[in-house]
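Quick note —
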Amino acid sequence: MLSLFKKPSFNQGKPADADFHARRLAIYEQELGEREHTFLDRGSHRIDVHAFGRDFAPDCDEGSDEGYVLLTNGMSERRMAVPPGAEAKPRAELMWYVRDATAEISANLRWLASLPFIDNTWFGFGHRVPMPAPPVPGTDFKTFLFLTPVITPDQRIAEALSVAGDPVEILTVNLISDREYELIKREGLDPFLDLLDENDYPPIFDPSRKSYV
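Predicted structure written out below.
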């Protein structure tokens, strides 16, 4: 288990893909600070998951709201199958705000980052991935929803990333209820985003969150 959290070193003798991972990690750490953990991927299409500690409480608030920013590193090495005319970036990395940086949540995030290349599809703002069962314990929600960051340092990461001249999108991972999913399919994304604002949607994933619909 401890090997999951081992911080890799990147030396000049490493393969080119390690250099690319190191460059992205340097951009991540410039905005998020030094990572606390890395869940290493030993597969042929390497997608590491880095965990950065963060206090999500606003600066003006007393107390703290500690959690982690999980961020993939390697998904953007491959272009997604974005159809001609679609308003989406061809490359992406995924971000998930969580209370605990667990191996299980990391595995879910890595699987999501691999899915466009398994199914020859693409992810963009507002896309959903319905699952047959809740992907993490403690929640009844079964559908992943991708949005874009609203926190300034996370937005700056997207602005700084590119691969082979392509810009890279940062997509935040969210889990929504069946009723919320049906609302989006029926009325579009904007009414659901309004519900997030009205209900003060928490930045950190809360498995016990009640459906807003």
